[in-house]
Write a structure and sequence with these properties.
By secondary structure, this protein is an alpha/beta fold. It has two domains: 16-248, Type I PLP-dependent aspartate aminotransferase-like (Major domain) (Aspartate Aminotransferase, domain 2); 253-341, Aspartate Aminotransferase, domain 1 (Alpha-Beta Complex). It has helices at residues 16-25, 37-50, 62-71, 87-90, 95-100, 116-119, 151-163, 175-182, 224-230, 239-248, 253-272, 298-304, 327-341; strands at residues 55-59, 78-83, 103-107, 133-140, 167-172, 197-201, 211-215, 279-280, 288-292, 308-311, 316-320. Strands 1-7-6-5-4-2-3 form a seven-stranded mixed beta sheet. A four-stranded antiparallel beta sheet has the order 8-9-11-10. A hairpin with a 4-residue loop joins strand 10 and strand 11 (316-320). Helix 2 (37-50) runs parallel beside helix 10.
């Protein structure tokens, strides 16, 4: 068995209950392209979480959820405001701009979180035909720096967006981790807070693959079935995505997984704080720990427990905990750090 590393929660395996759900969905034949009982039941779970006044579309991956969800709210002359560290800006190979034609307007932040004040510099050029037209504010929950927006922070951004005839999009690749941190239901900090479009992730929290695009503002979901098809994300055997989400949202499996990974990140942070040569750089609010580590030990650490350098200039690294990270993984990793520093 491969040793558990700390590179990404994408590197983890699949929760046994999710595997079981996929296996059970593999029995017999059913109608393709989402016209099946598994998709119907999965959607019912989302309605329980968010209310019935939403539209739900399943896709394969998070990049598709972001790109296609944003497509529904924009035209090629629009712009989307996001944090500089946002996945749509840093890790999607230009796909949002390539496929949608809009312009990304990144904002430098110290903690991955946008504020009304920080985006003001991009609020210009409205109705001026020589300037791209700001249309969407995109936030990430939890952020790429492991921080979590409060409900009030989200409401502030949503109110600002709507007052300027704009929309609020949320990249929820780690939305479960944020929900655990906030101790709130999904709806409390999304639909009720003014979010219009939500990319709802499960892959990073124990699912095999599959994300959901939720139009919390149903007006934006009009004709989206055509956008999804043109975007090559209409799964013929959709039941294998849907069955995962049905199980994921049943009996708090999503919560248990996220709670555990958050707990492991807190354990790692508490042990790292005992080592004076290492400095934690961000609040540990989800399942990620960011720290400045002596450069000379990084290659040796990576040989045993792979992880990524976040900022090579600062010697800052990112350590991610997963639903299957164990206390022994954390303790053995910290022991190795101490050994290399001694």
């Amino acid at each position: 068995m491969n040793k558990h590393g700390f590179a990404s929660d994408n590197n983890s395996g699949v929760h046994p209950e999710i595997i079981k759900a996929i296996t059970e969905a593999n029995e017999g034949h059913t109608i393709a392209y989402g016209n099946d009982i598994y998709t119907e039941r999965a959607k019912a779970k989302f309605y329980e979480c968010f209310g019935n006044d939403i539209d739900i579309y399943f896709v394969f991956i998070g990049t598709a959820a972001n790109v296609l969800g944003l497509n529904a709210a924009t035209r090629s002359w629009n712009s989307v405001i996001c944090a500089e560290t946002a996945h749509i800006n840093e890790d999607e190979c230009g796909a949002p701009e390539r496929f949608n034609g809009f312009k990304l307007l990144p904002v430098e932040t110290h903690d991955g979180k946008l504020t009304v004040d920080s985006i003001q510099k991009h609020m210009k050029g409205f109705d001026f035909e020589h300037h791209s037209q700001p249309r969407v504010i995109s936030i990430t929950q939890a952020t790429e720096l492991g921080t979590v927006y409060t409900i009030d922070e989200i409401k502030s951004l949503a109110g600002f967006a709507h007052s300027n005839n704009m929309y609020l999009h949320m990249d929820g690749a780690r939305i479960a981790n944020a929900a655990v941190t906030l101790n709130k239901n999904f709806k409390d900090f999304t639909k009720d807070a003014g979010v219009d479009i939500l990319s709802f992730g499960g892959t990073k929290n124990g699912m095999m693959y599959g994300e959901a695009i939720l139009f919390l503002n149903k007006n934006l979901g009009k004709d989206f079935k055509y956008i999804r098809k043109q975007g090559m994300q209409l799964a013929s055997k959709m039941r294998f995505i849907s069955a995962q989400f049905e199980r994921y949202l049943t009996d708090n499996l999503w919560y248990e997984n996220a709670q555990h990974s958050n707990k492991m990140a807190q354990l790692l942070a508490s042990k790292i704080k005992e080592i004076p040569q290492i400095k934690i750089t961000q609040k540990v609010e989800a399942n990620g720990v960011f720290a400045i580590v002596p450069k000379e030990i990084i290659p040796e650490l990576q040989k045993e427990y792979f992880f990524y350098e976040w900022d090579e200039v600062r010697s800052e690294v990112r350590w991610m905990a997963s639903f299957d990270t164990t206390e022994n993984d954390i303790l053995n990793f910290v022991d190795l750090i101490k050994k290399l520093l001694s």
